[in-house]
Amino acid sequence: MTSLRLHTYFRSSAAYRVRIALNLKGLPYTALPIHLLRDGGEQHGEAFDAFNPARLVPVLQDGAVTLTQSLAIIEYLEETHPRPALLPVGAPARARVGALALSIACDIHPLNNLRVMRYLKSEFELDDSRRQRWSRHWIAEGFAALERMLAGSAYTGSFCHGDSPSLADCCLVPQIANAERVKCPLEVYPTLMRIRESCQHLPAFVRAAPEAQPDAE
Question: Which CATH superfamily is domain 4-84 in?
């Protein structure tokens, strides 16, 4: 029986990243859904607070080890299960993949996550339409930069870096799913969409998708 237990939510892009990484590495895990909306959000309950005082998903338990933050979790998986690798060989290549991943996880995603959307509604009384406009603006800013980074690099292959999926792809695909949910025009990012298409042919990405999760609604 696997010791890996993932506290997840089907629509969380951060949890989605970790699901992709676990699947790419062929690591079985038990999914423990945390509903981020029901009854004000199950992440705010005392039971989950014991796992993560930040009250965010994902949380990965590996035996006695409890880990938070999606990129830190994937780094842990990379160190404990190095094959197949999600980071390329060589410091420059690893830095490039890290920069692509961080541009999504740190520059784009935080401006569009659930906590921000709730604050925009409660503090500034923005309705759904205006909050979606907010999300579309910041996704477009980030995706425009990503498109230039990827389209202009000889290191871009079928995936973000070369011809095998990496940490960058684990971050890109969930962010595109978020963009689709808020109706971002995506045809202006042909390189991003081509890479997403490559990813969608891999079972690891298909099994990690929100609609494939046991808690999908």
Answer: Glutaredoxin (3.40.30.10)
pLDDT digits (tens, 9 = 90+) for 151-210: 989 999 999 999 999 999 999 999 999 999 999 999 999 999 999 999 999 999 999 999
Are 201 and 159 within 8 A, CB to CB?
no
The alpha-helical segments, DSSP class H, found in the chain are 13-24, 46-49, 70-80, 91-102, 114-124, 128-151, 167-181, 190-200, 203-208
Q: For the domain bounded by 91-205, which CATH number is listed? A: 1.20.1050.10
How far apart are the C-alpha atoms of 171 and 104, rounded to whole Å?
A: 7
CATH 3.40.30.10 domain position(s) in the chain: 4-84
Residue with tokens 């990379």: 78
Give which of 192, 47, 184, 174 is closest to 113, Cα–Cα. 174
Residues forming CATH 1.20.1050.10 domain(s) in the chain: 91-205
Q: Choose among 161, 181, 184: nearest CA to 171.
A: 161
Q: H or E segment at 30?
A: strand 30-33
- Identify the three-state secondary structure at position 181: helix
- Residues 94-123 pLDDT 10s: 999 999 999 999 999 999 999 999 999 999
Q: Is the pTM of this model over 0.85?
A: yes
